[in-house]
Amino acid sequence: MYLTLDDAKRAARVLRNQLPDTDLTHSKALEIVAQQLGFRDWNTASAQLPAQPGMSPPVPVLRSLDEARAREFYIDYLHFSIEWEHRFDYAQSILYMRLRRDQFVLDLSEHHGDGTPGSTVWVPVNDVTALHNELHATGYERMNPGIDIDSPGGPTMEVIDPFSNTIRFCQTTI
């Protein structure tokens, strides 16, 4: 039998749906499914299970050093939604979080060794001016990006997260 990462995620959703009267979180359901499949934990399972036959789009992992600042920047300012969060069971556990906005998927990790502060992610967008206007309207005072219309790939807007990671939104001219 060929089992994919999507199959494992689907199994976790089914488990939660079949146990609606419990406080079973999605994160805990993922951990249970991973152990049922013989993995130590969900991170190990997701690293070893194929997403589907062949390659899938990469998911950048950026280092996060402060959960509150990360949420303020990525959720409140950039309007990402949280796909899932993972913490180990002990108190004050560090956070690993998957975010999505449209087709842009990004992981933020407080785990030592995951990502390097100061990394750069290049993201193609359809309309960088519309994105610029949307971000400006949030009133986020820590960032006021401009648009570089002479960038080699097309008009580009850079934002820098609280951990010195750069995201370059580029409206490609091709």
TrEMBL record:
Keywords carried by this UniProt record: Antibiotic resistance, Plasmid
- The reply on keyword Iron-sulfur is no
State the superkingdom: Bacteria
**InterPro entries given for it?**
Bleomycin-R, Glyas_Bleomycin-R_OHBP_Dase, Glyoxalase_8, VOC_core
| Stored Gene3D superfamilies | 2,3-Dihydroxybiphenyl 1,2-Dioxygenase, domain 1
Name the family the entry cites.
Belongs to the bleomycin resistance protein family.
Supply the name of the protein.
Answer: Bleomycin resistance protein
> Which Pfam family would be a valid example here?
Glyoxalase_7
Please report the stretch or stretches of sequence annotated as the VOC domain: 54-172
Q: Could you confirm whether the keyword Metal-binding appears in this record?
A: no
